[in-house]
Amino acid sequence: MSAIGRRMNDLKSLMYVRNGPGAAILPPTVTKIHLEFAHKWDGGHYGPRKFWQKNLPRLKYHNPAVPMIVNRTKDQTAAATLSIYMKTTTSSSSSSSSSAAATTTTPTTTTTPSPPSPEAAEAAPDAATSEATTAAPGKPVAVADPWLNIASSTQGLSRAPPPSDGETVVTINMKFVSSDDILRQFVAKTGARELEPSEEDRAEMTRLEELEKQAEADRAVQKAFRDKIKAEKKMLERARQEANALKGD
After folding, report:
1. What is d(CA 24, CA 66) in angstroms, rounded to the nearest whole number?
2. Cα separations (Å) of 232 from 220, 227, 240, 245?
């Protein structure tokens, strides 16, 4: 393939992933996306597969910071589920109330601390070490985010993790549902803002369509030329065989 052909294919791929169904900006409340469906299209998994192939790349292109995990299973009878992880409004309201309470506290009188004695300075490191090694009873322990150790799987190994604190999960049943309906439900549940192609992209797509039509015409001309050469070669070979047969007689 020539350099021009490769460049045109790259432009087509970029235009394809940037524009079309699925090109949308997710709101900040959407934190993660998880898809689970079977490998093959039968058993109600045709719509989920098409959504994964056609729509999900555009969502990821416009929302690169949102983790999107795909878990494909071998079980064609399994469920096909789209899980949307979203921040809950309670966490934001509690944080705002706590910040408001912090701003309304009464000021306290500050005093200049006296320098510590040598005995207290020597005992300070030991006290800090004992506090660091001894956990306070009832104190919550930080749990690692399961999304840090999860990746897309083709063996059904990446099931949807439970939501983190301050998150809720909204699910969409994708089984026996078309990709267009899946996308409509996704936009409705997330409040995503669908994007229209820009004027530059529209002009570029029009130019690429014209180039593709011209390429099809050029391919037809080249095929006709090759077919003509093949036919002439066959005629020459037939004439050569007939001449050799006459010489033998």
Report:
1. 13
2. 18, 9, 12, 20
Q: Span 20-89+146-196: which CATH code?
A: 3.40.30.10
The residues pairing with 34 across neighbouring beta strands, listed in sequence order, are 69, 83
Please state, in angstroms and rounded to a whole number, the distance separating the CA atoms of residues 30 and 146: 17
Q: pLDDT digits over 80-114, tens only?
A: 999 999 998 754 444 445 444 444 444 444 444 45
- pLDDT tens readout for residues 23-50: 999 999 999 999 999 999 899 999 999 9
User: How far apart (Å, rounded) are the C-alpha atoms in residues 132 and 126?
Assistant: 10
Neighbouring residues of 33: CB distance < 8 A, sequence distance ≥ 6: 59, 66, 67, 68, 69, 82, 83, 84, 85
Q: Dihedral sign, CA of 59, 65, 67, 70? A: positive
CA angle 31, 32, 36 (to 5 degrees): 160
CA-nearest of 22, 71, 21, 73 to 43 is 73
Does pTM top 0.85 for this prediction?
no
